[in-house]
Write a structure and sequence with these properties.
single chain, 15% helix, globular
Length: 86
């Protein structure tokens, strides 16, 4: 977690799937930026690790800001980071 300004925070999120999952992905790393004042987020970079050992990295040069919907994982993350940053 990196607080860039009074209203902007960047966070690196790691997601893994269980061994029992039928998903092709094993791990997803997402680098996000959140704007407290506008209740929005955007994805800056992503890295996917697949079960076959391959990986894919993607950076977004001009990512669009997206509204944070209530009662979602992004809403929970937003509430946690927003309260912690104050």
């Amino acid at each position: 977690v990196m607080y860039v300004s009074d209203t902007i925070v960047r966070v690196l999120e790691f997601t893994t799937t269980s061994e029992a999952s039928v998903s092709l992905t094993k791990e997803l790393d997402t680098y996000r930026e959140m704007d407290y004042s506008r209740r929005k987020y955007r994805v800056l970079e992503m890295r996917v690790k697949y079960r076959d050992g391959s990986e894919k990295n993607q950076s977004f040069t001009n990512p669009k800001w997206v509204d944070i919907t209530h009662n979602t994982w992004m809403d929970t993350l937003y509430e946690y980071l927003c309260k912690r940053g104050k």
